[in-house]
Amino acid sequence: MASRWRWFHQLGSPKWFFEKSAKWLPWIWAGTLILLAVGLYYSLWASPIEARQGQGHTVRIMYIHVPAAALSMIGYVAMAIASTIGLVWKMKMAFAASRAIAPIGAAMTFIALFTGAVWGKPTWGTWWEWDARLTSELLLLFLYLGFIALHSSFAERAKADKAAAVLAIVGVINVPIIYFSVKWWNTLHQGYSVTQKGALAPEFQVPLFTMIGAFYLLFIGLVIMRLRVEILMREQKSRWVADWATEQKAQKRGV
Amino acid sequence: MTNKGLLASDLTISRAEHVLLEGAELELAPSTITYLYGENGSGKTSLMRCLSGLLQADSGKIYWNGQPITSLDSEYFQDLIFLAHALSMKAELTILENLSFYARLRGIKDPKSLIDDATSQLGIAQLQNRRFAELSAGQQHKVALCRLVIEPAKIWILDEPFVNLDKATRHWLALLIQEFAKQGGTVLFTSHHEIEELAIDQRIGIEH
Amino acid sequence: MFRALLKKELMVARRNWIGIVIPLFFFVMVVSLFPFGVSPEAPTLQKIAPGIIWVAALLATLLSLEQFYRSDYQDGSLEQTLLIAGPTQVASAKILAHWLLTGLPLVIVSPLLGILMQINHGFIDSNHTWVLMLSLLLGTPTLCLIGAVGMSLALAANRNGMLVAVLVLPLYVPILIFGTSTVTASLENFSYNGQLAILAALLMIALVMSPFAAGRALKISVS
Hints:
The complex is a heterotrimer of chains A (255), B (208) and C (223). Chain A has 255 residues and is an all-alpha fold. Helix content of chain A is 80%, strand content 0%. The radius of gyration of chain B is 17 Å and the shape is globular.
């Protein structure tokens, strides 16, 4: 128990995180590259095209679309969890983390929407269809944008952190409500569905899961990088940041 | 902790990434008048807002009669009147309506006689049915001060209460504060210049 | 205490009555634009009526938030009431007053809009107007509850009312979906009890959570 609390405490220390994460990043990027290389090879060349629906190569978009959509949701939940930790335990690092996740989650949502539209053009003959999934993603993007807009509207960071955290929590409670409403609304209007029913054939599973793994690592790596920038901005007046900056300058001169 | 009065320990307050107070200790005993001084922007208002429970300190605890002010059974907020820079009156309502509102919030069922008393002490009794927005700045300030007479309290935290007051009102307020302290009240106030009329028991300065 | 808070809201609103009427004007005017923009033909109007009326109600609620919360924040009375009465109670009183002064009037004038939008066209002694009112009666409190959270969060931000809209509109979508479909179901002679039940359920959820969340948000804003 004691060691776990220590770990929690250390994660709460910006300096500790900044130093440690520099060591984590190369490993995360290496993992991302490997998984991306394998995943893209399988999804773009080595996987069969789906003949059944006559979609041809467009099915390959799924390998980007599905991971991006998954992470857009997980990103929002992670943001809300970080916000809760920040509000309950008054941990500043958690606020920084939720702020760091927001733009990356929004980007993932945008990728999911964009690939959905690109997929929709040959499949439905139109860029946009009010499909339940796409509509939910659109609303999720709005929620992300609301968080970013609110956080950026305060002169004082402490207030911005807390207000945006409350919004993230309210948002995450609403996400399932929004999702089920949209789904219900969609069936009412005889909607289209992007997802096919039934289990995915194994030849699709390997590239898909590899790509999902790659996206997870990519997401974590990007969030850590954003978080490091966020920490530098927040701690710019502290001693260790000044030391770090002079060290960086010295290194640059040395090269 | 059985200390009476307000006690703040190891208080750290920062505003916009700027540390105003670090590890401050503060004790405001009953029957004492404390004068808080410091330059503009030194954090007087932040400290007062923090002691009033409006602003959250980065760290540290505040106790009222030995209990943390945020604990559920703390009576701190019933006992406290905090007068801020903003006068906290609705422009659309009359003096009487504004003051009755605050009195009712404090659980006073029929505040009319108390309001009559307070407003006549300050010479604004005849204006009771005028809207707050129609009053002059000086009169508006007096309305806010009426709350000190009407609402029951054991501690006053007053942010610049003497500013913009004419001599007679300043004198009146000084006497009121003195009388409140004599009856066991705790007072913390800020002011730009010394108030000669007031016997101050404790001085606290914020210096950087 | 709650009664004192509510009474103050109503008194301020009475002195400031034009501010209460403006959202209503807005509600009626926005809806009456659509016949010009779309078509004055009764079947077309009837088809789009539920959506138009509901979107207008949603926007009217949203636009009325600003004046309802802003002045208390600016004149300092918000922080005083928060100190004395506690955040959840203050938020509850504000939300109730806001609904009584904006939501309820919207429900009351909605039959007029039903007439303008030909909601009863082709039906003799129909009850569509009642269904419209009922859906608004169950939906507008939720709009006020959610709006209160968004507005309370945006109070201390250095932005105008547009920010609140961005925060709150995505959260309004479920209410819009079920509010509109209640009326549409009635127009198509389907059962609409399920939709009303969901509107009621959404109201319950908002009722449990919003006053607390809005209270927290107000507290953050005055800090």
